[in-house]
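[Archive record]
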Amino acid sequence: REFGGNTIVSNIGGIVAFYPTKLKYQYTNPYLTGDFVAEMIEAAHAEGLAYIGRFDLSKGMRAAYDAHPDWFMLNRDGNPREYEGTYQACPNGGWAKEYGALILGEALRRYKPDGVFFNMTGYPLTDYSNINHGICVCENCRRTFRDMYGKDLPKVDGFADPAWRDYLKFQERTSEAVAQVAAT
């Protein structure tokens, strides 16, 4: 407020919960004492600020991956899309299609932010170190792409592969489907 702002943004949940979650696979901030989200909303409103809650449903932690590896992206080399202990959610997996809705539902029943912000989701080719891992080739993506287009995922990334144009449409269609789940 002293800087002329009228809104503040802070984390609510997703990769890390900033409140005492009851969800098994949403990792709780290990430094959490009390209820950070409730305190932030109260403090923001006391200062006349709107509170925007940030959700990052793009990744999960190791416990979620160990229990449900099919929820997360798989690189062409057969390894999971992991970065510093976080696992990239596949838009066609259960984390994005089901568990994210549980996280949102739990938090939004508990809190009434003035708005929400969703951090990165989708089909990133690179990680935070800008290393290109290519497209996700998990069974969910292979099956969904085959069901939609009657063909295998592109063998190489880019327009040199005849399936690439369909793959870009696939990304758009499946991302929109995830957004619709989140909206409900």
